[in-house]
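Checklist before submission:
- one chain only
- standard amino acids only
- sequence pasted in full

Submission:
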Amino acid sequence: MRGLTLLLGAALLAAVAAMVMVLPDSPNGSPVSTTGTPPGAGKATPTPAARVFSDPCGTFDTTTPTPYAVTGYWLVPTADHCTWRSQLQAIHRVGGDTVVRLGYGLQPRPVDQDGFVMDSAGDAPDPRYERCEENGMTCVQAAESALKAANPGNRISWTYVYRTDESFGPGLFRCPQMEHPITVGKKVFFRLIAPDDGSDDATCDFSSRGRGYHLILIDGSSDDSLTEILGLADRFAMKVFPALPVAPRDRLVPTRADPRHIGTLTTLTRRILQDYGDRFKDRASLGGVYQPFELQLRKWPDPAEVSTLQVYAEQHDIVEQELPGKPIMVSPYLDARKDKPFTSTPAEVSAGFKELARTGVGIIAPQDSRGTGKVGLYWPNLKGTTVDDRLKPVVGDTSYGDAYHGSTRDYYRAMGEALAELRAEGDDVELWANVEAFEPEGDGACENGGVRGVTDKQRLDEAVALAGPYVSKIISYKWSSFFTCGTPTLAEQVEKDWDRPIPIQAFPGRRGIQDGIEVRGYNLARGTVTLSWHGGEEPRVADSGAVGWSDLTPIPGLPPAVQKLWIPVDWSTVPEGAWVRVEVASADGREGNAPVYFNRAA
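Returned file contents:
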């Protein structure tokens, strides 16, 4: 196509007839009217004066010089205190204000005849718990001895283990006469004992009758990592979402939670959250808690029979009791592949979204599932194109339309519609997007034992664009490894190119009596807009700084960094039914990595 400049003169003020165009991505399917430019529109956001703090790990800067569209990241727990500090500073530098911690699982374990906790396979004593001893006995034997001293009929019917890098205060213990920390050298274990009926009896009556009990041995730490990370988050004005204990998995179907252990799981959850409530309930940096047990978002024939949803509901009740006002965040995954059983259409995901919200979660951040290849990034008019080469190991050498029931945008749109219905019913759940910062296959260099590959900022920008105007926040899995490996690292790519335009939505909108187009997205102020469509003789280009209008005012319901711009357009020259490609370039000439499209419907 030949490059000509669109004639956007004063004649458009009177010559363009009003045209209403119904678009898949336009709010309520109607045009948008805009008003005047606020002071400072189109100017760079001022960087606050540097604030620093120092400690044995070094000197840390708490300013945010390169704020990217993604504002939250998962972190893997680490024993290195200086790693926590450097990770939070790096996340904060690129605009991150939210950290989600990966967690650990509660596991039932066999015990051998000598009282040692066995490994998960049941083949040998687990070295992690083998060193747990008290009064010359293993910790299991010591617990059973204490129970039988209270009543000879008492017994331990199940033993569970839970590992963590956290420490706990007195709030962990309901019955101090039977429960306590156990210090072995530099190690600290925590012993919890609860009735095996799941009641977590508050009477602490161990003597009036013999009964079965569950023993929970926590392999903890003498230093509490959560206290430390919350302190850092206070300095960086960030929110932390620590993980709830992960439910034991069904041995036959590991993707499902095992409902047999709900009672013990809720006991452990209650105790940990009681302790959090005692120590952290007034901390602004405790943003909420993260439900780490993954499930696929789909339409369930009978949600009441889904064991994972049962576990969710039970755990989430405990959160509401112990940490009122702190939301639960969950990140289910999507699967749109047509050639696999049990995958879901956007409509089925919409139904599942509503069922998941009813388990008491406050934030649903679905994985976009592009990193695993289970969903593709494409627009409806491009479903006949061949899939990205990086997706072929997952879906083969085929087209997007043949591979998937829909694109990530189709799924987020469907969930956005479900969200509107839930809010109309009084359920104030939030919809975030979790964009996966990896590729389906790689050399595993980013993770020990992993198979995923590194991705790049261009693909990440595309994922942000496709999540579109349906989410209020974008987070990413995960900072540890995937943003910090490779050369250059993904974090370095983001920091270098953070302000490249990322349009997320375009639709017709009038300003006064003049027809035009409104574009929403990141880093759009004073951008140059290019419109093109199949069959068009040349692209049409307009500098919004010269003939248009920019607005940096936050848009309700969208991430605060989303901006909007408008340029005039004579729609009578655009064919009805055309899919219009919209691209935005920054003032310095950098074009966005991902265009947006809209259908110029009749």
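Reviewer check: Confidence is low (pLDDT under 50) at residues 1-49.
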